[in-house]
Amino acid sequence: MARRGPASPTDQARSTFRPLPPGDVRITGGIWQRRAERNRVAAIPSGLKQLGEASNLFNLQLAAGQATGEPIGPIFADSDVYKWLEAAAWEYGRHPDEQLLESLMSVVELVAAAQDDDGYLNSVVPFRDGGRYVDLPQHHEFYCYGHLMQAAVALSRSAGRRELLDVAIKIGDHLVATFGEDKRHDVDGHPVIEMALVELYRETDNRDYLELARYFVEARGTGLIAGYGRRPAYFSDRVRVREQTTVEGHAVRAVYLGAGATDVAVELDDQELLAALETQFASMATEKEYLTGGLGSRWEGEAFGDPFELPPDRAYAETCAAIGGVQWAWRLLLATGKADYADQIERMLYNGCLAGVSLAGTEYFYVNPLQLRDGSLADEERNTSTGRHGWFGCACCPPNVMRTFASLEGYVASTDPTGVQVHQYVPGTINAGDLGLTVETDYPWHGRIAITIDRAPDAEIAVSVRIPSWAQGATVDGRPASAGGYVSVTKVWKAGDQLLVELPLVGRITSPDPRVDAVRGCVAIERGPLVYALEKQDQPSEVAPDDLVIDADAEVREEDRPDLLDGVVVLHTSGAVVDRSTLPGGPADHPRPKSRTTATELVAIPYHVWANRGPQAMRVWIPLA
Length: 625
Ligand code: FUB
Ligand code: ZN
Prior knowledge:
The protein is of the alpha+beta class and 625 residues long. The chain is 34% helix and 17% strand. The protein has helices at residues 30-53, 56-63, 77-94, 98-114, 125-129, 136-139, 141-159, 163-178, 193-204, 207-219, 251-268, 271-288, 319-336, 339-353, 397-405; strands at residues 18-19, 25-27, 371-372, 413-416, 419-422, 428-432, 435-441, 448-455, 460-467, 475-476, 479-480, 485-492, 498-502, 507-510, 522-527, 530-535, 548-550, 557-561, 568-578, 597-606, 618-619, 622-623. The strands form three sheets. Strands 3, 14, 15, 16, 17, 18, 19, 20, 21 and 22 form a ten-stranded antiparallel beta sheet that branches. The protein has a seven-stranded antiparallel beta sheet with strand order 2-6-7-8-13-10-11. It is globular and about 75 Å long. The N and C termini lie far apart (61 Å). The mean pLDDT is 96. The site of zinc ion (ZN) has 6 residues, from helix 13 and helix 15.
């Protein structure tokens, strides 16, 4: 059985770094371990229950001829089942549990029974819309296939079970026979099939799947999806992928496409395509990404906005988009070896993704704004003023979080011919061939990271550590290390040797680009990789953050709070409360005379734990006094 995690390039692929196989990295403590454990113990079991209650499993029973009635839920309901299966499969690999395998295999059996003889599989479309592939842009048939293939690969890699892989292969062969330049020339409205087909190729060695993935990437941007009520940009279909310079349209679609196209570029050594994808990612990161790593500012179309259109209160920043951003960044990191991508993964994981799930692990945010106003109207279930939910009518995010938490180890480290690279700092062990490391740290709360060599080859080998771009003043073994990049220490290591990385974890004040009009005149507080937020309940007299301003030269003081929100470092700074009664009437957006303010302390918690004591007013960007 191949020992591979998600997104592992083949040996022939042009990839600077290679991921470590599952099991070679273990996370033994800290935030990630705690979240992953709750995912295992609480979220994954509750996810299966939700799939039953929301009728996703019933739909598959219908398709399998085991029930009668009409399918229920969104057209892409099957994808939630497949994402859950992927989560359960990776989790089984981390923690073999026969009961989990049994329940997951019973779902696999149902999925297999729902498949048509020629490979077609969908439990909703044929029942509801009278035929296969009649509306590919909207019907998500390939999207569902893609998630099934990813689950099948996960199950094959983590448990050596082929049952779902056989279903995936049948779908893959059916797609190869049906779609392509000289066959039906068409693509799905929602990417994911691209990265899934590349993974299926990696798992089966069948190059037809890689060729089909390449075809789907190349066919995009040729106007195939025009005319369905939405403009091509929504579907990332306005510009060919290799000619595109930014991200646009529906955010999850765009980042999944970026990730899949990167897989294709790496496997085919297509440097032109890879360069285009790097340009697109850079444009996203500098012009269209929230401080939290959140992606997609528009509710309308769940889409990227124009450059610098990043309103904090109306931010959409879907949890799935941050997850897709991590997947894309990881692929670019492996392909190029550039530390910026690991920085991005860190930002997205610690803020945009983590905020999407409750500390308990079983409630989720669909959208992740950077501000919730006091008394915000709970107009619909996605609005954060309704709190996190156990599931949604459109439940794309919850099982996406589950599969991410079940495969977190994959993002920690990698190898190249010179040695091992440590990208993310978590307590645990890293094994890369003859080299074994133990990492001890309380990061992201404290900046000391001690890496002890447990085993080493009898030859020179490099241990490379990432110095994040915010880490001005970092040291490695006491020597200054520049922020942004890797520091490599190459030598003949002996068991017991240590490498000490010290990252300066101090509160810092961040100013936005002046072109982000929505937060002009505001600043945010960050500490290490964490973005901080003011939540109403922590402020003196529980003043709503809407009424708070921050001192321009505010000093930031920190306080360890092991008792609060799973244990956090709280930040204190100074500012003032605006006295509403001194504000004149008249239109809110007219210039106003100075209002009276009263000095106060501001108390900030990590953004990712907000709304764990009930939804309440919160803000990341704070107006300067
Ligand atoms: O269309 C399938 C999923 O539903 C998308 O990825 C999410 O943005 C949500 O719209
Ligand atoms: Zn989602």
